[in-house]
Amino acid sequence: MNDIAEASPSPASFLSVGLALKLSLTLDGQKVMYGSTLLGWKDHAWLVCEWPLPLGHDHRVESGTPCTVSYLHDGKLVGYRSEIRELITAPVPLLFVAYPKTVEEMHLRKHFRASASEPILLMKTDMANPSASVLPAASYLGGLLKDLSGGGCSVTLVQRPPWLRPGTTVRLEFELPGLGHITNLTGVVKNVDVRQGSETVGIEFRFDEMEYIEYRGWGGSVKSAIEQWATQKIVAPSLS
Questions:
Q1: CATH code at 222?
Q2: Could you list the residue range(s) of the whole structural domain that residue 86 is in?
Q3: Collapsing DSSP states into helix, strand and coil, what is residue 160?
Q4: Is there a single domain that holds both residue 118 and residue 229?
Q5: Domain C-terminal end among 84, 108, 132
Q6: Phi/psi of residue 194, each to 5°?
Q7: Domain holding 35: CATH number?
Q8: Could you tell me if 46 and 96 are in contact, meaning their C-beta atoms sit under 8 angstroms apart?
Q9: DSSP 3-state assignment of 197?
Q10: pLDDT tens-digit profile, the chain (240 residues)
Q11: N or C: more exposed end of the chain, with fewer CB within 10 A?
């Protein structure tokens, strides 16, 4: 990743309706990050976006509260320091934040790998019938998602079944904190690592348009959601 570069914002080059945003701010003494979607803007005045659903419509955020807005654009992480301007609750909840005076840009590596600690379900794929929805109980396995990137993940298991070995195709289901719940994501086991009584498998994603994410105030494909989450988790503090 290159050093941060600062530039003057140009709406034509860095804003678009439907852009997936990440909002970072401090609430009740804790730093939190939420996904949202850009709905519009007024040049040099404000940006308007969806109110992050995890906050709830009754959660009040004071006008003037500092925040950081960031997103991916043309292979770069773009972000800027801002503040909350206004919250409108009716007819739909909308959040207004201050328009940037300058933006910071960081060129990214192909894949950022971010640490994670989420339950994950692995399902053996029936290659004779990949779309089969009913599999034997022995074909399901729970584990702990340890890290995640746009290209794959690693999963720690208490006990690895014989069928889960390099070359095995699996379907994955897990939570992407703050963004949504991913189901039916295809992966191929690339390696197995045995350490201290547990085993960790490395899995490479194979995006085939069968994967699905139940969004929570965020838009985009499963692939872009994973990339956004991993990138923001690693580099967002540099923009704060």
A1: 2.40.10.220
A2: 5-108
A3: coil
A4: yes
A5: 108
A6: -105, 120
A7: 2.30.110.10
A8: yes
A9: coil
A10: 344 445 555 544 567 888 888 888 888 888 888 888 899 999 889 999 988 876 666 667 888 999 988 887 766 778 888 999 988 888 888 999 999 888 877 655 555 678 889 999 999 886 444 454 545 556 889 999 999 988 899 999 988 898 899 999 999 999 988 778 999 999 999 999 887 678 999 999 999 878 988 876 555 688 888 877 777 676 555 555
A11: N
How large is the C-alpha radius of gyration of the chain? 20
CA terminus-to-terminus distance, the chain = 17
Which two structure tokens, joined as six digits, stand for 69?
Answer: 């807005």
Nearest Cα to Cα of residue 184 among 150, 220, 133, 141: 133
Give the three-state DSSP class for 113.
Answer: coil
101/135 same-domain check: no
Q: Are residues 149 and 94 in the same domain?
A: no
pTM above 0.90, yes or no: no
Beta bridge partners of 54: none
Backbone φ/ψ region at 4: left (φ over 0), alpha (ψ -120 to 50), beta: beta
Last residue of a domain, one of 93, 108, 123: 108
Q: For 103-126, b where at least 16 C-beta lie within 10 A, e where not — what string?
A: bbbbebeeebbbebeeebebbbbe
Q: Which residues, in sequence order, are CB contacts of 13 under 8 Å at separation 6+?
A: none
